[in-house]
């Protein structure tokens, strides 16, 4: 058998490639759009989903009901359980948000408005701040915050970070703070001063202020916490704002 070797430069395929008809590159700014390129390559842009043709207000109602089916009717998130995950991709995001980037972009603000965020420490607070400061999140979308260790605020600190976070959420409507019975053995003025509670008056969208009692409240402590609730309502009323204050036992 005779084997004939054709030099690389003389191969027919190479000659065809070198002589194939080519078009000059387009000038700067003349490149076709992605849609035109797809058509030239034989692809067709996918038709938008019928849902996406509806007004945004209808989208948001659909997203809300979708998330309620997944999260339940009173969705709350313990931030503490997720602080080891990156703030850019927290583990508490529902699966329905992760269908596509487009869905995430539309659903995420709805999710933030729907959720009660629960914090137990300064670390939780800082993590929640980083998460809310990401694009398409926004503190302005937060509606409900719950501070389960609010009463652990140490004496003498100039800033209450829980209330600082609350006042930065301009659309906030509901706050819940927890007070252990041992923390109310003082006058209402002393409690207000210790926790910098006057700061809460900067929450201009607030409608509900909840006081959760932790521990065995006796008659004296019951009277004090009811007096504190009255102070909250009267302080808001003095600035022309109606806020209802509820007092109830702490629930995990």
Automatic annotation (TrEMBL):
This is Uncharacterized protein. It comes from Periconia digitata.
């Amino acid at each position: 058998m005779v084997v004939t070797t054709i030099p690389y430069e003389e191969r027919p395929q190479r000659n065809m490639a070198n002589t194939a008809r080519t078009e000059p590159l387009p000038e700067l700014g003349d490149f076709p759009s992605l849609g035109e390129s797809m058509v030239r390559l034989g692809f067709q842009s996918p038709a938008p989903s019928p849902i996406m043709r509806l007004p945004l207000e209808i989208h948001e109602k659909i997203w809300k009901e979708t998330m309620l089916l997944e999260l339940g009717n009173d969705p709350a998130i313990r931030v503490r359980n997720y602080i080891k995950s990156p703030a850019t991709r927290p583990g508490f995001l529902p699966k329905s948000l992760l269908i596509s980037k487009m869905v995430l972009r539309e659903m995420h603000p709805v999710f933030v408005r729907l959720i009660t965020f629960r914090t137990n420490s300064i670390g939780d607070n800082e993590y929640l701040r980083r998460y809310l400061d990401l694009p398409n999140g926004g503190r302005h979308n937060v509606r409900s915050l719950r501070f389960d260790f609010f009463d652990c605020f140490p004496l003498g600190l100039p800033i209450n970070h829980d209330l600082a976070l609350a006042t930065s959420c301009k659309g906030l409507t509901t706050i819940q703070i927890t007070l252990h019975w041992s923390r109310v053995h003082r006058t209402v003025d002393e409690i207000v001063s210790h926790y910098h509670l006057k700061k809460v008056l900067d929450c201009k969208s607030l409608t509900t202020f909840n006081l959760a009692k932790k521990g065995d409240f006796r008659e004296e402590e019951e009277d004090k916490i009811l007096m504190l609730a009255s102070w909250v309502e009267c302080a808001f009323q003095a600035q022309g704002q109606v806020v209802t204050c509820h007092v109830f036992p702490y629930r995990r």
